[in-house]
């Protein structure tokens, strides 16, 4: 939100965060595909659909309303316009095909869902249970991502499934080989990964190119993730579980809504991009996201829980239990 609505952070800050998210996503997709959804591709897809689309469609309705009521919203983001072509309508309604090149995106940040959904399918249904295949895909994806980032590839590195495949497979391989990769001092590794990641996100640009920082973002996040996951710190972190749960549940609608709501605040008040716009938008976005949770996600939660409980053996819920 700060990167988008203030334009005062380094160019790579938000992008490095997205790379970390993709890495964590690959890790978690692989974990659940090997655990509660093992041998249950239908249940996996059903729960992914229920997790993604009802909230997405609710937030899209809000985005469509903002774009229709405040045409000046495009001053904040050029894609905040109503779809005209059939392609843009389909992409906005069903996510697939929604890229950074899509002319109309009523939820501008949702381009990353397009990338995410492809790896739900590839990892969740194919490679999650095949470590050797994942290693092969990691090698291929690193080469392709490096080509996209630093070569003359026809595809961009940031914002495309091919360019960002490395982040997902780094996370996937990390889960599959977490035991073999267990460090002697996991908390030290987590600290090193955290410092490296923050340097890439906020520090000076390496070699004058923010692309280098972005390309290294997922590996740095993986170092932090491996250290924290294998540290057996579940007890020490238990007191944070409630807060993290609330933040985690809010994060999806906040991610979807902050761009159109920021544009609405700008259209109504005339406040330009900066910390004031960010502050006002944050309050409105969090409040509206809580409403989405209450009236959309909570009613669906019981259905999703029933799908999960149908598994013959649920995956352990803590890192310590899995490692044991």
Q: N- to C-terminal separation?
A: 38 Å
Secondary structure: helix percent: 55-70%
Structural class: mainly alpha
Low-confidence parts: 312-324
Series of secondary-structure elements, N-terminal to C-terminal: HHHHHHHHHHHHH
Oligomerization status of the protein chains: single chain
Count of beta strands: 0
**Biggest beta sheet attributes:** none
What is the arithmetic mean of pLDDT? Answer: 92
Please report which band the strand proportion falls in: under 5%, 5-15%, 15-25%, 25-35%, 35-45% or over 45%: under 5%
- Taken from the alpha-carbon principal axes, the silhouette is globular
Number of helix segments?
Answer: 13
Query: Rg to the nearest angstrom?
Result: 20 Å
Nutshell version of this structure?
The protein has 324 residues and is mostly helical.
Tell me what the structure shows.
The structure is a single chain. By secondary structure, this protein is mainly α. Helices cover 69% and strands 0% of the residues. It is built from 13 helices and no strands. The protein has helices at residues 2-6, 13-34, 41-69, 86-94, 111-127, 131-150, 165-176, 186-202, 210-229, 234-237, 241-269, 275-309, 319-323. Helix 3 (41-69) runs parallel beside helix 11 (241-269). The longest helix is centred in the C-terminal third of the chain and has 35 residues, at 275-309. It is globular. The relative contact order is 0.17. Residues 312-324 have low confidence and may be disordered.
């Amino acid at each position: 939100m700060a990167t988008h609505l203030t334009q005062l952070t380094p160019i790579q800050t938000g992008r490095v965060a997205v790379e970390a998210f993709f890495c964590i996503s690959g890790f978690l997709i692989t974990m659940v595909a090997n655990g509660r959804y093992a041998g249950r591709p239908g249940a996996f897809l059903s729960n992914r659909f229920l997790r993604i689309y009802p909230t997405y469609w609710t937030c899209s309705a809000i985005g469509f309303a903002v774009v229709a009521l405040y045409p000046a919203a495009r001053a904040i983001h050029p894609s905040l316009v109503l779809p005209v072509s059939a392609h843009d309508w389909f992409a906005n309604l069903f996510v697939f095909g929604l890229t950074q090149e899509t002319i109309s995106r009523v939820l501008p940040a949702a381009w990353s869902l397009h990338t995410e959904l492809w790896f739900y399918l590839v990892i969740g249904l194919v490679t999650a249970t095949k470590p050797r295949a994942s290693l092969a895909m990691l090698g291929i994806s690193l080469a392709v991502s490096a080509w996209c980032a630093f070569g003359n590839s026809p595809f961009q590195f940031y914002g495309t499934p091919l360019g960002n495949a490395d982040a997902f497979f780094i996370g996937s391989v990390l889960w599959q080989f977490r035991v073999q990769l267990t460090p002697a001092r996991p908390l030290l590794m987590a600290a090193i990964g955290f410092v490296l990641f923050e340097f890439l996100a906020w520090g000076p640009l390496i070699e004058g190119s923010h692309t280098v920082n972005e390309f290294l973002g997922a590996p740095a996040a993986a170092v932090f993730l491996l250290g924290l996951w294998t540290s057996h710190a579940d007890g020490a972190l238990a007191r944070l579980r409630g807060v993290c749960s609330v933040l985690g549940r809010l994060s999806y609608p906040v991610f979807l809504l902050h761009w159109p709501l920021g544009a609405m605040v700008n259209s109504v008040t005339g406040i330009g991009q900066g910390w004031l716009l960010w502050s006002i938008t944050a309050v409105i976005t969090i409040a509206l996201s809580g409403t989405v949770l209450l009236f959309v996600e909570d009613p669906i939660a019981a259905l999703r829980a029933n799908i999960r409980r149908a598994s013959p053996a649920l995956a352990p819920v803590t890192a310590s239990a899995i490692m044991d």
